[in-house]
Amino acid sequence: MLLLSKSDIRRVFTMRDAVEADKKAFRLFSQGKSDSPVRTNIQAPAHNGSFLFMPSYVAELDTAALKVVNVFPGNIEKGLPTTPAQVLLIDGTNGMVSAVLDGTYVTQLRTGGATGAAFDVLARKDCKKGALIGTGGQAATQLEAMVAVRDLEEVKVFDLSRERLVAFAEKMNEELKDYGARIVAAESADDAVADADLLVTVTPSSRPVFDGTKVKPGATVSCVGSYQPHMQEMDPVILTRASKIYFDSEEAVLSEAGDILIPLEKGIITREDFTGDLGQVLLGEVTGRENDEEIIVFKTVGIGTQDLLAAKSIYDRAREAGAGTEWHSEK
């Protein structure tokens, strides 16, 4: 069994790799070629936490996976990851665990990759400005995904904590400097959103974190953070302005995402407003962007197939490169 740390993964796998792995995952999911049950979510209310268990299986790859990802937003104050996780990669021919991966980093990569895939497929080709709201554990890869798939000049970032925001912007300017985009600490959510071609929200907020009237025509919006029915970081106004609304998995989104469930319940939108899953666009079954004026919304909550494809790709690369640590159990 191979143990793969964050540094091992970074050695062999890039954000562009993550985007392509997610595209493959979404295609397999939409073709019905992956068994990816809606995740089990067990609450830990005393600690404002959630335990999430995400199994998946792809027969044609002879591979299964299980991700254990626990969401504890309060960890940010303790200097701990808000979404600690491990991914178990399983050989589908014999049931043996072939690798254990740093699931926190795999989650960051494949979640960033989902936004990257959506922007790559749905966003205008001439995007120059991005906006990111939230600077928590998933934010860095969301930011990298934006600049990896579009040649952006500037990304404005906003967070309620000014101290955390400034530190994040400084760090990202250094880490992502090779992409050539300026990372700027915005004065407000309105300041960030006003001229953005690409907008990502990645917060656990239970109320909207941006003004949907401020989003400009032609923008593509990816809402990533809300994963429970009471969470709603997306301003529902943007859903009424959007020409098209896509999901990673409509079933998964409708099982847990307040961003969509709350507006549905209030009658702001109906299911007729949904366009389809991103995998269907990739397969040519559903139309993508049709003109440069359309506002497009992508809502993702994550599916196990993404973890499986990312983990399998990382594992294969690591084997080729001799990366990771071998662990042998006693017989």
How is this structure best summarized?
The protein has helices spanning 6-12, 15-30, 103-122, 139-149, 162-175, 189-193, 237-241, 250-256, 258-266, 278-282, 304-321, and strands spanning 2-4, 40-44, 49-58, 63-71, 85-91, 97-102, 129-133, 154-158, 182-185, 198-201, 220-223, 244-247, 276-277, 296-299, 325-326. With 331 residues, it is of the alpha/beta class.
Keywords:
single chain, 331 residues, alpha/beta, 7-stranded mixed sheet, 11 helices, 15 strands, 35% helix
Low-confidence stretches: none
User: Can you write the helix and strand succession as a string?
Assistant: EHHEEEEEHEHEHEHEEHEHHEHEHE
What general outline do the C-alpha atoms trace? globular
How confident is the prediction overall: mean pLDDT? 95
How much strand content do the residues show?
15-25%
Category from helices, strands and their pairing? alpha/beta
Instruction: Report the C-alpha radius of gyration, rounded.
Output: 19 Å
The helix content is 25-40%
Question: In what order do the strands lie side by side in the largest sheet?
Answer: 9-8-7-10-11-14-12-13
* Sheet with the most strands, sense and barrel status: 8 strands, parallel
Distance between the termini: 13 Å
Number of helices: 11
What is the strand tally? Answer: 15
